[in-house]
Amino acid sequence: MKNALVKTDNQLIINRRKRRAIKRTIISLVLLVSVTITLCLKLTYFNIAYISVINNHTINSDEIVKLSKINKGINIFYLNFKSVQTNLQSNPYILSADISRKLPNTIVISIKEREAVFYSKRDNKYLIIDKNGIVLEEKDDISQMKLTNLQGFDTKEVKIGEVIPSQDKRKIENISLITELISNNSSGIDITSIDLSNDLNLLAYSNNMCIKLGNGNIKDKLNKALNVIVTSNLKDQKGYIDVSYEGNPVIFTEK
């Protein structure tokens, strides 16, 4: 009986010691974490000294840094990433921005840009538009940009950073479709203009050659027309190719 009591007492002592050891370990860890956090927030070693911008092609890195409103010299752990992203996305060219810390003192900004595909005219200015119909900027000159003229929209009420106004959502959808076709065009024939004025009669232009697409099955129709231009050597001709219906295309060229 006495042995049993001794064993029980010993086990209780061991358990108390274990609990005390665990408690001391937890307290030590809490103190260590607290000291580490305090040092990280107070030491100038963690103040932002460098800002690296990657994956930007259109917007200058200095402009992105300025737009981010990140101040060098502040503690790297105090930086509000959400605020920086909001600042950056005020530029219509920036689709998204990923912000990360590279310890001890560098912020990395990874940019995903919208791509300029089309242009429309408003007065004497050029509106630059992406594949989703978003107006990226207004420029005086686009001679150094390879863009497709986009027709069929009223540009009077256009606002930078917003989708080009249209009461017909199919027009915006067609912009994305045409972008895909232009990107995948390997014929060597440039699509210089697109007219989306009439959803039932979409028109594409390669310089002075009009391609009548009609509606529906636009991809196959455009490929057929481009193939006709190549095989019939119509690249520099003026006229039209009608592929808006099934059957052989109708070709007309001016003499």
In summary, what is this structure?
The chain is an alpha/beta fold and 255 residues long.
Could you give the topology of this structure?
Layout: H1 2-42, E1 50-54, H2 61-68, H3 81-88, E2 94-102, E3 106-113, E4 118-122, E5 125-129, E6 135-139, E7 148-151, H4 169-183, E8 193-195, E9 202-206, E10 209-214, H5 218-231, E11 239-242, E12 250-253
Parallel strand pairs: 1-3, 4-7, 7-8, 10-11
Antiparallel strand pairs: 2-3, 4-5, 5-6, 8-9, 9-10, 11-12
Characterize the structure shown.
With 255 residues, the chain is of the alpha/beta class. The protein has three domains: 1-42; 44-113, Roll (Ubiquitin-like (UB roll)), CATH 3.10.20; 118-253, Cell division protein FtsQ/DivIB (Rossmann fold). The chain is built from five helices and twelve strands. It has helices at residues 2-42, 61-68, 81-88, 169-183, 218-231, and strands at residues 50-54, 94-102, 106-113, 118-122, 125-129, 135-139, 148-151, 193-195, 202-206, 209-214, 239-242, 250-253. It has a nine-stranded mixed β-sheet with strand order 6-5-4-7-8-9-10-11-12, covered by helices on one side. The chain has a three-stranded mixed β-sheet with strand order 1-3-2, with helices on one face. Helix 5 (218-231) links the parallel strand 10 (209-214) and strand 11 (239-242). It is elongated and about 110 Å long. It is found in: Membrane. This is FtsQ-type POTRA domain-containing protein. The chain crosses the membrane at residues 26-46.
